[in-house]
């Protein structure tokens, strides 16, 4: 019995780009449905990563999904590829465990498969499978032994795979394999190799296969596709290639028997320790109620809010999730690690009472339903910011506390244009120099484009490649790539999964190149499998604050409570002058300008400012009316009382996600689940077609709930429509405002310690040389790098009665932390007396010694020139002999020392700036120093220390030019950017002409100045 006339086929093999293919799981399913097929199996090579996405899309399309994987099986007869299909959730777990072993060891031993194969079906593999290869080698006895071994273990779950890729001899091969199966009494099924959704993707499949194998397209290789036959076939083509009705009937029967539900209906409780006899919900309630009685006694509003939140948590079965977060934060703080929640979780009173956040959501009027509500279908996020330098301690604690039940989620690294150009260009034979020139030429305008939009950058391709045929071929290949094409996996920056039971039950586990245990699914797909994940996010600013606190304690003996700092208006005043460098979230040029205008005085002011300078408010036109009303130059329009209550604190504009959700709920009558779905749909709306159903639903809701109609209702809709871009949650902004205030407070009261934290941890956007200029402005001296005095990090020292910063050994480029520690250990035996003493005690590599000498680490023992001589080096190169006594050598003049310092350390202790060496030349050109600019036409110069060209800026670019401790924002209009693009791309020092407004300079012309 064969396939019914007109009915689709059951296709048992297909690879996506998570394996060796080029199409997404979703695209494969869409194509299968278009061709009328009823079942499709995803069988990526050594991967189950696409499985969750595959099941979700199949459910949407009405196709029955099957899941399996290809893997190398190590047998006594050789190593061969086989396909394993999962027949149940337990079979999936076994396959996942086997793949974990493959990812660790390279192949799966036959004994491991024979021992554990329940609910797995084995297909013998295609062209490289053991039947074909052993038959070709005439090793019939070996083939017979292996088949008998597998038959004994799998019984009726062993199938011989028939393949046909329209290559010479395939007609004969498929008939021989069929005869072999019939002779052995084995069932056989078609297993056409599928690695692309449609035939036109063949050139892309070939090129990416070459890239994966490290080949050029001119090199033959047996794994390269040789025609379009690896596209999903139509029924007619499939039957033409494998014309055996009984094989297709076997495939359908097998497919029907393998269908199982992969995705669970509820979240799984994490394995948190509990007191005997107590459920997670009971323990959570006890902790929260005790904290409420201790901190907010006799507060009915707090009690009511807590009861509401506890009921929601119980209904969703998330008590263990909260307990896990609480235990992680409590452990971190017990070790002095800064740990605090951010994001929508800050709107939860439970999170506050469990000490996840210092923000009181009741006092701040924050919305719990943005974080959690009864209609939620997805797990909420509890994002925990940790000091980045100690984040690994927290992760190690999780590993020890939960054993093998903890791992990082994966992040799917998708192709952007530069990476695609590198991979495809390598396969096409483009020399490395040309590839790098091309990726550099893409610059800020095009480097973030997905590959399929490469045609937008065609002029730059032409600039580098001319009209060579490779240019057109490269652009055609890029155009074939899907948006979101996944290239590889890497550990997620914060997503830690804690699972009940073995991790391999949910996904294969692998150790990353950095040694991190990683589940091979991203956090959204793992959540769909029912797993709880915590986002443990390493935040460099917390590391900087933590280190600053330690420096204050070391130098003054005072331990600061960074979550309980007093509110002082004087702390805010530097923001009013635009002195924002190093201030968390507020140091960008846009935030600097906003600080001057808004003059914040409270944490709420900081939260609103942080939220205001974001793509959503900028694109929606929210910024101007907010500013005008906040500064008293415009009055808010009268609104319905319900809307006035929602928007009054943000001056009648929609600024936060919570406000939008409340408007949808209280103004348009939506439930919280519908409101959240509406918000997400609104954020993704591209055009009028997307907006029309949303507008109709909203206007109908306004009419039914508040009685608003006509222009009054449309005015409210325009507020909502304007909120289409990304906007912050108020909870998130409140959390970040506290970090911002802590950095402001430390900068005001302990500038040396604060700068030590910034320079050691590098949390912001500014290079060390710019932070050095800020130290100069704040009156904090820098003490030289010293082989006898410097430590591993920047630290505070008192010099001549003033707190100063000592440069660390690691400031010298090329000196690792390990070697710096070796220096510190040797210093325990006594200080170094000379460079020769240092060399004898440590035997440093010559490049490390040179790095230290050039950075001035021996200046207190020898002059810089003499130290270079003693090291057997001069600024020009090696000497013939190290035994030559040093002749009298003059000291370096300031310009020479500045050049050496910048080359060797990236900054200098000298109170000099590169532009200080160009004053005469700049004066000749008529350039006005930045601190002397006055509003009006201006010509000035500066070192480029920041470049931005955000997509929300309508083609404008924003550069920051530095002249000593003074900085200027240069605004470059699109027409000037286009005309002088190469200058802006390549120059390090710019001479610019334009109009100075008092806060920024609008550039009309620009010239490069040769670097110092």
Number of helices in the DSSP assignment: 43
Termini separation (Å)? Answer: 82 Å
Radius of gyration: 33 Å
Strand content: 15-25%
Please state the average pLDDT score. 90
Q: Characterize the largest beta sheet: strand count, sense, and whether it forms a barrel.
A: 8 strands, mixed
Poorly predicted segments: 874-882
Global structural class: alpha/beta
Considering DSSP H and I runs of 4 or more, what fraction of the residues is helical?
40-55%
Tell the overall outline: globular
Topology, number of strands: 25
Structure description:
There is one protein chain. With 1012 residues, the chain is α/β, with parallel strands linked by helices. Helix content is 46%, strand content 15%. The protein contains 43 helices and 25 strands. Strands 1, 2, 3, 4, 5, 6, 7 and 8 form an 8-stranded mixed sheet that branches. Helix 8 packs across helix 17 (417-427), helix 11 (280-295) packs antiparallel against helix 12 and helix 34 packs antiparallel against helix 35. The chain is globular. Mean pLDDT is 90; it is low at 874-882.
Which tags fit this structure?
8-stranded mixed sheet; alpha/beta; about 1000 residues
């Amino acid at each position: 019995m064969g396939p019914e006339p007109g009915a689709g086929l059951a296709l048992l093999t297909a690879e996506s780009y998570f394996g060796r293919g080029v199409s997404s799981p979703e695209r494969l399913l869409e194509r299968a449905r278009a061709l009328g097929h009823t079942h499709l199996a995803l069988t990526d090579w050594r991967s189950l990563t696409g499985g969750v996405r595959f099941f979700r899309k199949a459910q949407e399309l009405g196709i029955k999904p099957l899941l399996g994987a290809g893997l190398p099986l190590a047998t006594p007869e050789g190593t061969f590829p086989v396909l394993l299909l999962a027949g149940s959730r337990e079979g999936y777990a076994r396959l996942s465990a086997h793949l974990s072993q493959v990812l660790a060891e390279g192949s799966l031993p036959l004994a491991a498969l024979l021992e554990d194969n329940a609910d797995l079906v084995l297909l013998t593999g295609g062209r490289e499978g053991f039947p074909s290869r052993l038959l070709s080698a005439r090793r019939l006895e070996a083939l017979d032994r292996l088949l008998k071994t597998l038959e004994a273990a799998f019984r009726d779950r062993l199938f011989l795979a028939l393949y046909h890729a329209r290559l010479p001899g395939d007609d004969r091969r498929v008939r021989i394999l069929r005869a072999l199966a019939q002779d052995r009494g084995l069932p056989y099924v078609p297993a056409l190799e599928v690695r692309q959704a449609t035939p036109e993707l063949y050139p892309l499949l070939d090129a990416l296969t070459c890239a994966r194998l490290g080949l050029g397209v001119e090199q033959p290789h047996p794994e390269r596709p040789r025609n379009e036959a690896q596209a999903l076939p139509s029924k007619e083509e499939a039957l033409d290639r494998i014309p055996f009705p009984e094989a297709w009937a076997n495939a359908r029967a097998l497919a029907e028997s393998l269908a199982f539900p992969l995705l669970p209906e509820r979240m799984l409780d994490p394995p948190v320790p509990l007191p005997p006899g107590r459920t997670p919900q009971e323990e959570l309630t006890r902790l929260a109620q005790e904290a409420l009685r201790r901190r907010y006694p006799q507060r009915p509003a707090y009690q009511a809010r807590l009861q509401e939140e506890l009921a929601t948590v119980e209904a969703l079965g998330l008590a263990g999730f909260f307990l896990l977060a609480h235990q992680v934060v409590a452990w971190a703080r017990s070790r002095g690690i800064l740990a605090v929640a951010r994001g929508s979780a800050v709107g939860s009173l439970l999170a506050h009472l469990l000490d996840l956040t210092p923000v009181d959501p009741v006092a701040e009027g924050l919305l719990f339903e943005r974080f959690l509500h009864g209609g939620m279908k997805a797990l909420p996020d509890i994002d925990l910011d940790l000091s980045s330098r100690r984040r690994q301690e927290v992760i190690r604690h999780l590993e020890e506390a939960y054993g093998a039940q903890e791992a990082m989620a994966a992040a799917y690294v998708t192709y952007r244009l530069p990476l695609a150009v590198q991979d495809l260009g390598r396969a096409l034979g483009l020399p490395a120099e040309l590839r790098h020139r091309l990726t550099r030429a893409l610059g800020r305008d095009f480097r973030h484009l997905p590959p399929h939009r490469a045609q937008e950058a065609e002029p730059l391709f032409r600039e580098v490649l001319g009209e060579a045929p490779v240019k057109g071929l490269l652009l055609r290949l890029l155009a074939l790539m899907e948006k979101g094409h996944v290239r590889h996996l890497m550990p997620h920056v914060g997503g830690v999964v804690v699972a009940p039971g073995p991790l391999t039950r949910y996904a294969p586990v692998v150790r990353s190149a950095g040694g991190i245990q990683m589940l091979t699914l991203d956090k959204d797909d793992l959540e769909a499998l029912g797993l709880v994940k915590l986002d443990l996010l390493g935040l460099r600013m917390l590391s900087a604050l933590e280190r600053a606190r330690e420096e204050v304690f070391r130098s003054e003996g005072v331990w600061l409570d960074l979550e309980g700092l007093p509110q002082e208006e004087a702390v805010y005043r530097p923001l009013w002058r635009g002195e924002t460098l190093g201030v968390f979230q507020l140091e960008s040029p846009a935030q600097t300008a906003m600080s001057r205008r808004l003059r914040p005085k409270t944490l709420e002011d900081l939260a609103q400012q942080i939220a205001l300078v974001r793509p959503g408010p900028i694109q929606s036109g929210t910024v101007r009316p907010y500013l005008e009303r906040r500064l008293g130059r415009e009055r808010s329009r009268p609104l319905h009382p319900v809307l006035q209550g929602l928007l009054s604190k943000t001056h009648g504009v929609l600024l936060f996600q919570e406000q939008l959700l409340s408007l949808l709920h209280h103004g348009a009558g939506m439930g919280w689940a519908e409101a959240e779905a509406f918000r997400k749909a609104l954020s993704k709306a591209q055009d009028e077609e997307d907006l029309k159903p949303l507008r109709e639903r909203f206007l109908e809701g306004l009419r039914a709930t508040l009685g608003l109609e006509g222009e009054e209702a449309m005015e409210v809709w325009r507020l909502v429509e304007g909120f289409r871009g990304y906007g912050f949650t108020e909870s998130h902004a409140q959390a970040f405002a506290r970090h911002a205030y802590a950095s402001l407070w430390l900068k005001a009261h302990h500038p040396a310690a604060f700068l030590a934290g910034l320079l050691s941890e590098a949390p912001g956007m500014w290079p060390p040389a710019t932070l050095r200029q800020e130290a100069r402005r704040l009156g904090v001296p820098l003490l030289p790098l010293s082989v006898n005095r410097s430590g591993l990090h920047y630290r505070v020292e008192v010099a001549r009665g003033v707190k100063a910063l000592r440069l660390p050994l690691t400031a010298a480029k090329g000196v690792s932390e390990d070697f710096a520690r070796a220096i510190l250990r040797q210093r325990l035996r006594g200080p170094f007396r000379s460079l020769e003493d240092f060399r004898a005690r440590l035997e440093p590599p010559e490049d490390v010694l040179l790095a230290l000498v050039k950075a001035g680490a021996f200046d207190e023992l020898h002059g810089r020139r003499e130290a270079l001589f003693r090291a057997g080096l001069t600024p020009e190169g090696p000497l013939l002999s190290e035994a030559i006594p040093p002749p009298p050598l003059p000291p370096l003049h300031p310009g020479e020392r500045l050049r050496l310092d910048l080359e060797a350390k990236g900054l200098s202790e000298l109170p000099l700036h590169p532009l200080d060496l160009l004053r005469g030349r700049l004066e000749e050109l008529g350039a006005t120093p930045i601190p002397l600019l006055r509003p009006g036409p201006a010509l000035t110069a500066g070192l480029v220390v920041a470049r931005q060209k955000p997509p929300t800026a309508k083609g404008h670019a924003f550069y920051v030019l530095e002249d000593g401790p003074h900085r200027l924002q240069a605004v470059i209009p699109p027409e000037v950017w286009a005309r002088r693009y190469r200058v802006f791309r390549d120059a390090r020092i710019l001479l610019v002409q334009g109009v100075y407004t008092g806060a920024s300079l609008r550039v009309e012309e620009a010239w490069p100045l040769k670097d110092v």
